[in-house]
């Protein structure tokens, strides 16, 4: 079969994989819920390729992510919900609507002005969706439940801050952080596991707020901390391996001393790089 373009070929491949008559058993067993985790995973792999500045991997990962859209669209078409063409048409309409300075006669001269106009337009769209459902619109509408907790916390806080619901200063956030720490101690003393979980959540939410006030990318800061922990722990493993041992054959005191050694090496390397 001759295909007029690669996109049509991809759509035909997906339809064939989902064909009950000779399609792929695995693909036929899938539904929206079972595919959703793969969709999220592919998005993260796109981000990882970008972070590594690996254009070869980025091309591949973007293809994998595109396949997820095609997969969901094929399942939706089979159920009579919508088609890939409708998905593409809808996002095209949205882009035109949100860029009146490009596709209309609006005057938006700077990126900051465009960001402000974008948020206004999105707010109108959220209000329209709420009205269509007979609901009262909220400034928090549209912050996806499926986002990682830290990312969603920042987005919720930013939305609330736009209407003035925010701590006046960073010191106020720090005071709240201490208050939440004290509440964790109280919850621990009570022995109530549900209460402890709740207070830990409150503490993390305030930590995210602190990062926002200090204009620190909380997700990036946590990624850096994860990388630092991984790097230092790998050193502990390597040093123990020189003695023919693994971490489970060591003890906390020894590993803590090796951690301090790894930390000192990191600081020395950072100083030498200055």
Q: Overview of this structure, please?
A:
The protein is an all-alpha fold and 274 residues long. It folds into four domains: 6-94, Helix Hairpins, CATH 1.10.287.1080; 101-132; 149-216, MazG-like (Helix Hairpins), CATH 1.10.287; 219-273, no CATH class. Helices cover 75% and strands 0% of the residues. The chain contains twelve helices and no strands. The protein has helices spanning 6-17, 25-29, 32-51, 55-78, 84-98, 100-103, 111-132, 149-162, 170-190, 193-213, 218-242, 252-273. The mean pLDDT is 91. Belongs to the nucleoside triphosphate pyrophosphohydrolase family. GO terms for molecular function: ATP diphosphatase activity.
How would you sum up this structure in a few lines?
InterPro entries: MazG-like_dom, NTP-PPase_MazG-like_C, NTP-PPase_MazG-like_N, NTP_PyrPHydrolase_MazG. The chain has 274 residues and is mainly alpha-helical. It has twelve helices and no strands.
